[in-house]
Amino acid sequence: MAAFLARRLAALVAVLFAITVLTFLIFQAIPNGDPALRMAGRLATPQQVQDIRVQWGFDKPIYVQYVKTMEKVLDGNVISYSQQVNVEQEIVKDLPPTISLAIGAGIIWLLVGVLFGLLSAVHAGGWIDRVLTAVALTGISMPVFFLGAIMLYWLGYQWHVLPLEGYVPLTQDPWGWFTHMLMPWIALSVVSIGVYSRLLRANLLDVMGEDYVRTARAKGLSERRVLIHHVLRNSLTGIITLWGLDFAWVIGGGAILVESVFNLGGVGQYAAQSIGRLDIPPVMVVTMMVAAAVVVLSTVVDIAQAALDPRVRLS
Amino acid sequence: MIGGKEAPEREGGEVLDAPATSLLDVRDLSVSFATTGGEVRAVNGVSFALERGEVLALVGESGSGKSVCAMSLMGLTRSPNTTIAGSAHLEGEELICASEAKLRRIRGAHLAMVFQDPQSSLNPVHRVGEQIAEQIRAHEPLVSKVAALERAGELMERVEIPRARERVRAYPHELSGGMRQRVMIAMALSLGAKALLADEPTTALDVTVQAQILSQLKKLRDEEDIGIVLITHDFGVVGDVADRVAVMRGGKIVELGEASEVLGKPEHAYTRGLLEALRPTARRRTVSPEAPRHEGHPAQGEGALLEVHNLRVRYSIHGRRASPIEALGGVSLTLSRGETVAIVGESGCGKTTLLRSIAGLVKPTGGAIVLAGQDIAGASRRELASSRREIGIVFQDSQASLNPRRRVGDTLARALRARGVERARAPAVAARMLERVGLDAGQGERYPHELSGGQRQRVNIARAIAGEPKLVLLDEPVSSLDASLRRGIVELLGELQEEIGCGYVLVSHDLATVEAVADRVAVMHAGEIVEMGAAGDVFERPTHPYTRELLAASPKLPSLPGGVRSSGWADTRTPEDQPPRGVSQAQNPTAGESSPPTRKSSFSV
């Protein structure tokens, strides 16, 4: 276990290094990406631009710029080019909405996805299965910005059932937090519910054909116990892998669309704005967050897999 | 004896008159499945009675309905698409019409079942003790989990699992195949069931393990008075343990009687055919076409087609510090042109590794493999590719070794092109080869699932001999086929060898096949060849203790009286390689039964 964690930690460092270098290089390659020009403003003289360049170190070789930026990132005092505020403080401010979004939606899509998958598989071929299949496919094909806009229009603007947009801290007003998060949760979950229920349905049907399920019935177990203890338990591994990665993606600010549609002011929205401004430091930090979240969550998933299936060895 | 169609009732009307005395009384059981290709009747009016303390063997080939019969008694075939008719009484309780809830109380507690493959029949993610305890608690909800686990330990001790108390906490993958099957038997005993349905319980096991499991079953019969329905395709197993035998064919019992009588004096032509098929025509030659051979000391040097010298293969287990596994510890072997060497031994003895090394699929850690003067063991990729053209391989599973999405003619044509036949000529050559292996040229248009198992194996053989390789490796080529099909394949292999002059290396569990085909036999044990010699010598005068153990463990069939040998086999045998008609195999609900087990270990000599 310790060796496994050490290896994963080493992998994390390697991934972070690779991804920061790549991100940095991409911004060098973007046309019209010179940050000095942008910071100097439209009416600046060439001398002013040159001064900014020297002041921020943009005149140095690219690897020196990279090392300097990474030093600041790791010290926690990297400044964004556009607004010239501390990036990490910005992100800490934006984290609560993003984490609220990830946890709530993650629970919803996992539970509803498993429920739908289970119902579909048990009634495979029946009308429940057909209805749920239709629902799942609709969900998968529904763009978040479209579903979000529809919900905002009817639930928020027309019927006043739920607040229109923004984020209320949980500590400040739990009910307000809940009502503000409900629509984003649903919007984010719908696609995943579709994917998860289809995947689980297929897994369940596979496992139902296994010999040990026949054995379980031959032992005289109740159908419910056969289903939960033998079929579902052995079908969960694929779902859990997927869930870990999806969850990491949202935590790392991947739910850019949902955060923007509902104006949650989360990490994803911040990343989207920073990309629009070609602002390297925030993009670097957010990218690192996503990478770190994916590595950490996949480690957690692997540990969970080993707990679920004794044949899996951590290595 | 009544004519062919009805089950001859050798034991007379007694049993039928007094069903209450029987442990399990099955009458006129019929099972049919509704499929898109129409109704398929898997079991058609089967009647038998099982007494306490007896083993009744249900024998028959794949698709004869024997498994469906047992599963239907357990209620495991119940589904909207299945029609089950007839009656079955277990200790007076009706099974066929029983409600699901009532059946659940009977299953596992009064009527238990042991399945073919103990590996797949146990849930891999639960500890074996928990799986036994779960059954106890399903029937006796008041028993605490701790007490149930305690009882699981006792049961595992009773079925003679070594260090049973510790192994309560083991997962299935941590146990050997034999121990897993013992766990299944312990499970069947856990609530004192008096009737046991054992569906091919030893087919997936090695012969020595098979002998242990069979003696375990005999012990249950003799000491605990348990009645056992033993489903098997293997007459050797029948001869070993069965008191009475019911022979099934096409969903019907064609013959039923005392084991000694059915095996010794089979009344029904089909039974005679089955028994006869177990003795493939011996083809042992005295002199091989080319290199003259000295028994036990095959031709060395120039005449040798294949020479394996001191071959070593070591697998290191990734991520663990445990010492690497020595799969082959210095194996030497020689093969001449036109000669057949058989390698026999149990799972894990290294015979598959040896075959794979020769095929160039496993990189040896030491030693040499010289094929027609060229060393394969140390060859580069490119050299290996050219020497692979001289090697053909036939695998056990005829279905899995053909691409399901490619017509078999295309498969053959590709193999021919890979071996240097021009693109334009390949289809014509492929058609000729199909005819050569006993198929119609037109069958090249078919997909693998549209052919029967025997036909598919013929395609595989055609592919292996495409381009006339010098060496053909046969990995259990007939093990997954029914006995009545085996002889045809064995004969075909012999003819092809005469024509092409290729050498065969045969790996097989089935000593009957080995005896019929092999010139020499190598017995492998723990990565080494422990005995090697002319086939007749090894079988008749084994010198190594392990060989003797292997021969002793294989269940023996009582020898047939002379007159039976030339029986009406020809008119009773199902037309060999008859393709499934009407309903394709994919839709055939009995396909589950006909799907070949991973490894058959029927030493039916």
What can you see in these coordinates?
- The complex is a heterodimer of chains A (315) and B (605).
- Chain A is an all-alpha fold and 315 residues long.
- In chain A, α5 packs antiparallel against α10, α7 crosses α8 and α9 packs across α10.
- The longest helix of chain A is centred in the first third of the chain and has 36 residues.
- Chain A is globular, with a radius of gyration of 24 Å.
- The N and C termini of chain A lie close together (8 Å).
- Chain B is of the alpha/beta class and 605 residues long.
- Helix content of chain B is 35%, strand content 22%.
- In chain B, α18 links the parallel β17 and β18.
- In chain B, α5 runs parallel beside α8, α6 packs across α8 and α15 crosses α16.
- The longest helix of chain B has 18 residues.
- Chain B is globular and about 70 Å long.
- The two termini of chain B are 29 Å apart.
- Chains A and B meet through α9 and α10 of A and α3 and α5 of B.
Please describe the biggest sheet of chain A, giving its number of strands, its sense, and whether it closes into a barrel.
none
The global form of chain B is globular
- Count of DSSP H/I helices of chain A: 13
Unreliable segments of 5+ consecutive residues of chain B? 1-19, 282-302, 560-605
Number of strands of chain B: 20
Estimate the helix proportion of chain A, in percent: over 70%
Strand content of chain B: 15-25%
Tell me, briefly, the overall form of chain A. globular
Question: Pair with the most extensive interface?
Answer: A-B, 23 and 29 residues
Low-confidence parts of chain A, pLDDT < 50 over ≥5 residues?
none
Radius of gyration of chain A: 24 Å
Mean pLDDT of chain B: 81
The ordered H/E elements of chain A are HHHHHHHHHHHHH
Strand content of chain A: under 5%
**DSSP strand tally of chain A:** 0
Indicate the structural class of chain B: alpha/beta
Spatial extent as radius of gyration of chain B: 25 Å
Order of strands side by side in the largest beta sheet of chain B? 6-7-8-3-9-10
